[in-house]
Amino acid sequence: MIQILKKDNAGMIEDLQFGSTNEMYVKNILKDLHPNHKVLFHKGTFSTFDFKVVDSLGNILHEYELKSRRIKSNTYDSLMFGENKLRYVEDKYEKHGGNYTFLWYCCFDNVLLGWDWEKGTTKFNLGMGQNKIRNEKAKKCVYVKTTDMYEIKYE
């Protein structure tokens, strides 16, 4: 069966493929960062977070959310993610504790940036943002200054 896509859906599908490709790439980097544990995808295409690192008993040790960007790492002074992901982390931390890291893969210079969420942190700003490629409406977002991020070195 041939699937015909509406013109306005083409950007969304390309964006999802771009994200999926980069998730596989970054998963291998995370495996190198956590050699004694399993790195797994959260189930579901639209899970709130992308990866979890689990020990041999299946306990979640760390969770990662990846945002793939078609930019150089120094293009903007801050990068964003949806506020729903911040609420997820806050709620989950209150119930289970844990470690949470937001990642931005900047493909134009092959740089992976990280920002570790910590309880009580105020090192972010709230604002509105949108994914124009997906033609989404503006929504509440969290903006993190790139100066508060660190580069994850990998080969």
Which residues sit in consecutive blocks of at least 5 with pLDDT less than 50?
1-7
**Residues in helix, %:** 25-40%
Helix/sheet category:
alpha+beta
Residue share in β-strands: 25-35%
Number of strands: 9
If strands are numbered along the chain, what order do they take across the biggest sheet? 1-2-3-5-6-9
Report the total helices: 2
> What is the CA-atom radius of gyration, in angstroms?
16 Å
- What is the H/E order? HEEEEHEEEEE
Kindly report how far apart the N and C termini lie: 41 Å
Please name the CATH topology: Trna Endonuclease, Chain: A, domain 1
- Main sheet: strands, sense, barrel: 6 strands, mixed
> Which of globular, elongated, flat, extended, rod-shaped describes the shape?
globular
How many structural units, i.e. domains? 1
Which architecture per CATH? 3-Layer(aba) Sandwich
The level-1 CATH class: Alpha Beta
How confident is the prediction overall: mean pLDDT?
88
